[in-house]
Amino acid sequence: MAMQPAVLAEADQVEPRAGRLWLRALRSPLTLTGVVITLIFCVLAVIGPWIAPYDPSAVTDAATAPPSFDHWLGTTQNGQDILSQMLYGAQASMFVGLGSAVVTTVLSVLVGVTAGYLGGVSDELLSLLANVFLVLPGLPLTIILAAYLPHSGSLGIILVISLTGWAWGARVLRAQTLSLRKRDFVEAARATGERTSKIILRDILPNQLAVIAASFLGTVTAAILTQASLAFLGLTDVTQWSWGTILYWAQADSALLTGSWWWFGPAGLAIALIGTALSLVNFGIDEFINPRLRQAGIATLKAQRAQVSRKRAGRGKRVRRGVQDRRLRPAGSTDVILDVRHLKVNYGVVTAVDDVSFTLRRGEVLGIAGESGSGKSTLAYAITRLHKPPAEIPQGEIRYTQPDGSTVDVLAMDSDELRSFRWEELSIVFQSAMHALNPVMRIGAQIEDALVAHRPGSTAPERAARVVELLGIVGIPADRANSYPHELSGGMRQRAMIAVGLALDPEIIVMDEPTTALDVVIQRQIIDKIMELKDRLGFSVVFITHDLSLLIEMSDTIAVMYGGRIVELAPAQDFHERPQHPYSRGLLASFPTLSGPKKELTGIPGSPPDLRRLPSGCSFRPRCPVAFDACAERSPSLYQIGSSSAACLRYDEEHAVTIGETA
Ligand SMILES: Nc1ncnc2c1ncn2[C@@H]1O[C@H](COP(=O)(O)OP(=O)(O)OP(=O)(O)O)[C@@H](O)[C@H]1O
Question: What is the value of ipTM here, to two decimals?
Fold first, then answer.
């Protein structure tokens, strides 16, 4: 993809600058305090033994001396320097705290995220393991394990704390992953063909960082406290200096009784201080990770100025990429691009899509209408092979004709073929952009992800330029590439989703109620944009919506679904003027028209069928105003009536007498 220098320059500016966010998080005085205190403890832990004024075990004459110039923190009953013990102890305590937190967090993330994301047998086995560790009583187990490992030093303590602590975090992360993996933005990432490892790293883990960070920092504090408690109880090697062993000797030598506060005070204070500092750091991390928590001050004047100048720089410089040859095919040409035959989708015993057949031509808009539960989304997911268990396709064919004229069987594709088919040839715009976009990733980065997954050879500037171009195509200012989804209006979010869908110039775009959550003005803008893009770029659209008037306006062909079947398939105008199926007539009678004479809205009596208990014969029969006896006996197939077809027995030759009345 050749890039224009001007575009590259502009694109460079929309690269996310994650590094700066850390600096912004540090602007909070509380976070800064926490970070500084934590850093001081970490530095002391490293250099403590070198800067300690005395050997912490050296016995002197200055027994139980309060703080003085020679001994800043006083001495023990044996005249040992408490400051030196604290400095040596800082190393042991911080090592245990950080070491336990690393091991515990790695175990929790590995087990929790793997179990939650993979599900099935892996989830059952890993959850069983976590549950076993959860029901083991923590403190007694720690005491027993520590009793067996008193001389193994800090590593033994880390092992004990990690073994008894990982299961809780794993449970929380598993629950979060289970919920996240069903979110639309993870579905969208899967649909764009991203690999499982990348989905976990880019979509699942970033959304759990707050929990992981809280768990890590909490474990540091808990481990330091546990180590201190074990040492205090004499269950560790009490000749190794840690804040816990200082407390052990203070208690053993009756420091409390003799009022030697300087003996136990510093160790207690150090534990409390590091705990508080880590909590403050945790707040800062939360703010850094969750863009919604970031203060309004983040949009600094500087940032605003940068955006304005970027806008100016962008004017007149945006260069549209040359439209590929295949785009020059006239819209509405008759060659079939997608041929769906006798498709069936089951959810266990429920058949949600039953014997559905249709063709989609290049540049055509196929609108799918029908009440809620009629199987529209299930059909869309099946076409894209995004259906998930319990959904399965026991029967049918989906044939896709490639631009070179060769035809491929979509149902026979393996995962690699599917990965390139989805998004390169067929993309999906999901119903709710707020859920389909990753809340912790900038819009530009999300569009870029599809490019990274499918154009591994492209360079970062090329991708960034394409992001700018795509945003321009859908009418979003280029500087919005740096915005998070919550910073955009609903209409912009939906347009951003369309930009993601267009990223790889697909031949077909499946749009599942892309404008449902938007007000009518924005809805109109987006629909106009989709139609303009379709005419310009020449892709085909499968459009699903409840809005029948919109569907008639947009579509070339309309498929009406009822109880999982297509009951009418007709050119949009014919459908509007001469609906053939009684259900289509009912649907049209339920919608007001903005133009033309006022008409009474009659609607359709009754409610959509329960797919688990479909009536015999025609499933619309119980609600049909023109049903007759034969309708209870057999299910009608589609009958051709002019350019339309309808699944109604009134068009069967046997009942020809009725055709005159209904056609
Ligand atoms: N995960 C599932 N497990 C079991 N049955 C399901 C599942 N998802 C959908 N169904 C069944 O499939 C039928 C069709 O659902 P689908 O979501 O495709 O309908 P729809 O026409 O798209 O509805 P809506 O317009 O409300 O989105 C539903 O009535 C429901 O009974």
Answer: 0.97
